[in-house]
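Fold it.
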Amino acid sequence: MAVVYGDVTIVVDERDDLFYTRAALQAHRPAEGRITVQPTPASGSPAALAHDMLYALGKRLAPGPNSPDVWLDSVNAAWLAAAAWGVATGVRHVVVPRAHLLTRRRIDQLLAWRELTGAQLTLLWQKPPRGLPLALAVERRISGRDQFKALLAEPGPIPARPSFPPALPAMTGVAATAVAARQSAAPQPGGTEAASMRPGQRAHPCAGALATAQLIQAAPAIEIASEEAAALATLAHPLIAGALSVLAFTRAGLGSLRFTRDLDITGDVSAIKLHGAGHRHCPLHAVPAWARPLLAGARAHHRLMACSPRESVFSPVMLAEARHLRAHAGRLPQLDLSLLAGILVP
């Protein structure tokens, strides 16, 4: 029996039929926007289910008592990271076996995650339904293996695809073009130069990536090995993954990330604009295909925090002398990111 309301489905499997568990595990196809999250049995960690969600999304937390991912032990931080990755990678359907073993609190966390991402949620309740929480009220029922297979075959609320929503531009039209022109004394692939300013003179806001891309060509991305790109893609926190990916394909300094705003990333995540001190040098860089989902995750994280498009995307990882960023950079010696960023790890 399956109970459906809104975009949440409860599949009641009183006999714990192996068919349903096997079908749920086989349904795990992230490329099609559908993942299967297997809850860790008997874990007392408050963020355990969020960690399970991150694992299903292909992310791996750094191990050890002094892990640089320790801040993801926080429930809110872990679920926010999971929501950002879900949005950025186009997850439309999440299937959770053994849901009857979850506490009420964790079921509430799943429902809150669904509200943030808009994805469809299917819970396998593999015991009699009398223990169903009140939050999972019955509205409509379907039954049978065929209906369950059909449910898993559905694409979800919207077709599965990477979600790269356009950033809100700081300015549009003539105003944006004029500001970008002032920043570019001569169109160069390496970037733009800001107009010199007298002390006390009010500076124009630096144009975003979209306006700049209409005037200059983005500098090509520096190539890295596929193994190195894969290592960056498994980082659990979207801001860490996004920041280190930018350092990898631009060889820019850490300081340039401090000023990177939402509007400095184009809507399709094909280019990113970095900024120097005083906006004297603000180059535009092409974003390689492997890094687009990582930057999309960072931007989704920024927007889920209800931040302004003019605010820095990476500011949360710049706190405490970028301790978490430095620690992860030290775990990727093949990229030599610690030296490039000027953030040598002790």
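The first strand starts at residue 2 and ends at 5.
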